Structure formats: structure tokens, C-alpha cells
Amino acid sequence: MAQNVQENEQVMSTEDLLQAQIELYHHCLAFIKSMALRAATDLRIPDAIHCNGGAATLTDLAAHVGLHPTKLSHLRRLMRVLTLSGIFTVHDDDGEATYTLTRVSRLLLSDGVERTHGLSQIVRVFVNPVAVASQFSLHEWFTVEQAAAVSLFEVAHGCTRWEMIANDSKDGSMFNAGMVEDSSVAMDIILRKSSNVFRGINSLVDVGGGYGAVAAAVVRAFPDIKCTVLDLPHIVAKAPSNNNIQFVGSDLFEFIPAADVVLLKCILHCWQHDDCVKIMRRCKEAISARDAGGKEMQLLFDVFMMYTDGIEREEHEWKKIFLEAGFSDYKIIPVLGVRSIIEVYP
């Protein structure tokens, strides 16, 4: 075997060796793109460009973000990464770099700036020290029996992601704000492309609906639908008041209010198979309590889930869960990209 290794090394040319090293280093440093994105979000660089008429020089950016005088050259280096990765565009204006927004960075405009949609908080959810730190425990999680029995997040932090959200008000607020942003964008897309799935519905309960962004979007488009949001008591206690939405504080494993439709967005991919079956059985009970002829709908969106021991599923895996939970059939409706609507029938 040693001889084969030596032969393989001899086959690799100098150029191949150099290219292999470059590719390896590129993979090692890929996280810098995410860190740069988070920095741009926290510095509100998109706001600075927008408030400067849609184009800003490095000096303009420095003045707007309150840059320390010694960091101007470092900001230039940061912007190089961000333009290379497509977050901003750069133009040469009489020898001076001028930066403009792209469709991606327009999503990073803050609440105080005119915008259609914003996703700055979801950046903070994804590019978050506690989430990133979890990934450093992958080796232990894959190989150590005690670690393998819990979620990747628990290996790194000693508690579940949901326990940290409940016990750390700042982290919880950030997480829930990110979910509101994601829901607002997702529902806009769904209501544009597949609004017919909501027609003919009298009542809907959004399970794990947080602060009610999904339900609010449904009510705005379909005022006659009676919407209920179910989430843990400490979450619904902080939800903004809405006269058109009823909030219920409860555990989805214990109780789901009766409705024509039970909606789950970014819920089932948080849980392993057996827990998903339990949740779906509660959904079936909620639907049966209202009308056995009603339908259940799930909105499933792709997020990074392994760190909470969640899982994204293929169709045959969803089918197994639905049938074990006692449902008779289902239909998958592609919406956009990785997002789909799944209708599940009692």
C-alpha cells in the first residue's frame, strides 16, 4: 500500500500539487465569506450605500458606519470579499471604487430604511457563534457514543437549541426576529405563486408559528380565514398583538387546536422520524376534531438543521411519516427553489 501511495504522489505534477493546495485552502477559508456577510450586516453597509443615493465610496461607507480611523484599509479588504461573492458590485469612478447594491444586499436593508423585504436578522441566525461552534463538535458527535445520543448543539453547549432560546432573551429575540423575516419573504412568494391552496379554508392553525408572521400574511390575503398561532408560552407572550389572530401557548407534542388546516413551516425538519410521527398524529387529531374532509398543509423550507439533530427529508421519508401517523394520502406542490407545499389528507 505504501508503494501505491508513493506512485500516486509521483504521478501528481508540480502544477497539480499547486492547484490541489490552492483548492484545499479555498475550502478551509470558505467560512470567511459568511463572516464577511455577517460583518456587512452588523455594520449596516447596505444601509450606508442606500442612504448615499445607491452608490458609495469607501470614504462614504467609513463615515456612515462610524469606522475607526485605523481600519479604512481593512474595510477595503472586507469589501473586496463581499464584491467577489456577489453581495455588492464595485465600479471604478475616476480611480476610486464606488460600491452599489445587488439583489442580495437589498435584502439586508434594515427596518429604518425603505424596503420591500428584509433578511438581516436571518443572517444573524445562520451566521451565529453558537451555531457555528456546534459544527466543531462533528467529530465527537460522529464517533463518541454519549455524544451521538444527543444533538450536535447539545454536544457543544450542554443544552438544546430550544432551551438556549428560552433561557437567553437576547438570543431568543434574535432567533424569532429572523424567523419573522424568513416567514414574511416565504409567504410573499407562496401567496404570489400558490395562493389557491388557501382558498376554501375557514380556519387555520400555524403550529410553531412564533410571532405570527405567516398567519398575519394569510389573514391579509384572506380576511375570512380564522387564524390561530400555536407556540410555547414564553414565545407567544412576546408576540405582537393582532386582533385577527388568536395566540395559544402550548407544546405541539401535547395539544394542537382544532382547525380545517394545520400549517407547519420549518417545523418537521427540526425533529427525528419518531417525533415527526407524534407531531403529525396531533395534527390529524386537530383536523379530525373539525372536519375529517379538511386537508393539512405543511410548508417546508430548507435550513441548516443537523446542528439541532434535525433532518431534511426526501419524498419517500415524508410518505413513511404521514402513513405511520394515519394519513391516507399527500401531494407535494413545488413553490420556488427548495421550498414546497405538502398537502396531507386524513
Automatic annotation (TrEMBL):
Residues 26-111 form the O-methyltransferase dimerisation domain. One of its GO terms (cellular component) is cytoplasm. Residues 139-328 form the O-methyltransferase C-terminal domain. Keywords: Methyltransferase, S-adenosyl-L-methionine, Transferase. The active site is at H269. InterPro entries: COMT-like, COMT_C, COMT_dimerisation, SAM-dependent_MTases_sf, WH-like_DNA-bd_sf, WH_DNA-bd_sf. GO terms for molecular function: acetylserotonin O-methyltransferase activity; protein dimerization activity. It comes from the Eukaryota. This is O-methyltransferase domain-containing protein. It comes from Oryza nivara (Indian wild rice).
